[in-house]
Write a structure and sequence with these properties.
The chain has 101 residues and is α/β, with parallel strands linked by helices. It has 3 helices and 5 strands; from the N terminus they run ββαβαβαβ. It has helices spanning 27-37, 59-72, 83-92, and strands spanning 3-10, 13-22, 43-54, 76-79, 99-100. The N and C termini lie far apart (26 Å).
């Protein structure tokens, strides 16, 4: 399955709802939407509720987002992260860099 990204804007925030796979063939699609959003938003929300697969390439847009968040001061929050993906974040130390609710 490919990646479907639903983007919503409101009250200064930009929200992304990811559905499908975040992997080698889809991470750029997400990164190209995520990074510019930091220049327009007071906060970024990323919903993983319908994310079915997360490969190591899925880290690329999140790492770029962390960097952009630090540069702009715009917070980035992840929600509805599955237990399996959360475990990957913990093992890699990535959970310490992210705000996960």
């Amino acid at each position: 399955m490919k990646l479907k990204i639903e983007t919503k804007r409101g009250e200064g925030r930009v929200s992304f709802h990811l559905k499908g796979n975040l992997n080698t063939s889809t991470y750029l699609q997400f990164q190209e939407l995520l990074i510019p959003a930091f220049d327009e938003a007071s906060g970024i929300d990323i919903d993983f509720a319908d994310l079915e697969f997360f490969s190591t390439d899925g880290f690329k847009p999140l790492l770029a987002g962390i960097k952009k968040s630090k540069e702009t001061g715009v917070p980035m929050t992840l929600s509805n992260v599955s237990k399996d993906i959360m475990e990957v974040f913990r093992v890699t130390g990535f959970a310490k860099e992210l705000t996960i609710v």
